[in-house]
Amino acid sequence: MSILIPSHCDDVHALAVHHVLKNKDILSLLYIGADYPSQMLSTSTIDDKNDLHYEIEGTNIYYSSISSDIDVVWLRRETNSIIPLSLNKSDRDFMQDVVAH
Question: Binning pLDDT at 50, 70 and 90, where does residue 2 land?
Answer without folding.
Answer: confident
